[in-house]
Design brief:
Strand order of the largest sheet: 2-1-10-5-6
CATH superfamily of the largest domain: Oxidoreductase, molybdopterin-binding domain
Strand content: 15-25%
CATH topology of the largest domain: Sulfite Oxidase, Chain A, domain 2
Shape: globular
CATH architecture of the largest domain: Alpha-Beta Complex
Order of helices and strands: HHEEHEEHEEHEEEE
Number of domains: 2
Distance between the termini: 11 Å
Largest sheet: 5 strands, mixed
Number of strands: 10
């Protein structure tokens, strides 16, 4: 693990510890929490590189089937409606919707990398899907769209990202895991996955991808979690 990654993670964890001990988490963008949020964002943005890749893990390090944690906020595993389609819009010249079959016709990307949770655990899986950068090209995303918002049918779970992280070569809309179609427990029919963010930024059960001129928030970010959340 590089010194650069350790530095970024220490900034995140240090800010979280200070914030929870000294601040009102019901107002996460005010007071000391707001100061630390802005500082952390500047540091992490400075450390981010669009060409730095998460290391590819060997097959031997794959987390055993069934042991890769599942997460959703609904009471039961969310299931996609029969007419599910992904809506892609915002600052784009060709807004449209996609079925999984249509997404599969776009260039496919595969990688096997380590997942990092804000709670401290890690796991390894193989993912395949379409890069956000290829999706952006397909819909004609405007360069002025500095942010991308992702929303889901898991009780409206959502997150917004900076565009450079969303367009990173290891950021995909994943429709497969470990060589198989994505299962409902891991976000089927489509989920966000990336080598550059902590787990809570990776929205599952996707419904919309919007390219936007300004940042919005996120289900956990609105409760005080770090917005940039890089690894």
């Amino acid at each position: 693990m590089s010194e650069r990654i350790l530095t970024r993670r220490h900034v995140l964890l240090g800010a979280a510890a200070l914030g929870t001990s000294a601040c009102d988490s019901s107002r996460p963008r005010e007071g000391f929490l707001g100061v630390m949020e802005r500082f952390n964002k500047r540091v992490q943005t400075g450390l981010f590189s669009p060409t730095r890749l998460a290391p590819e893990e060997p097959v031997a390090r794959l987390t055993p089937p069934g042991d890769f944690p599942k997460y959703f906020i609904s009471e039961t595993v969310p299931l996609a409606p029969a007419d599910w389609r992904l809506e892609v819009g915002g600052l784009v010249s060709r807004p449209r919707t996609f079925s999984v079959e249509e997404l599969r016709r776009l260039p496919r990307t595969d990688f096997r990398i380590r997942h990092h949770c804000v709670e401290g655990w890690t796991a390894v899986a193989s993912w395949h899907g379409v890069r956000i950068s290829d999706l952006a090209q397909a819909v004609g995303a405007d360069p002025r769209a500095g942010f991308v918002e992702f929303r889901s049918f898991d009780q409206g779970y959502y997150s917004s990202w900076d565009a450079p992280s969303a367009l990173h070569p290891q950021t995909v809309l994943a429709y497969g895991m470990n060589g198989q179609p994505l299962t409902p427990g891991h976000g089927a029919p489509l989920r966000l996955y990336s080598g550059v963010k902590l787990g809570y930024k990776m929205v599952k059960y996707l419904t919309t991808v919007h390219f936007l001129p300004e940042a919005t928030g996120g289900t956990w970010e609105d409760r005080g979690y770090e917005w940039f959340a890089g690894v």
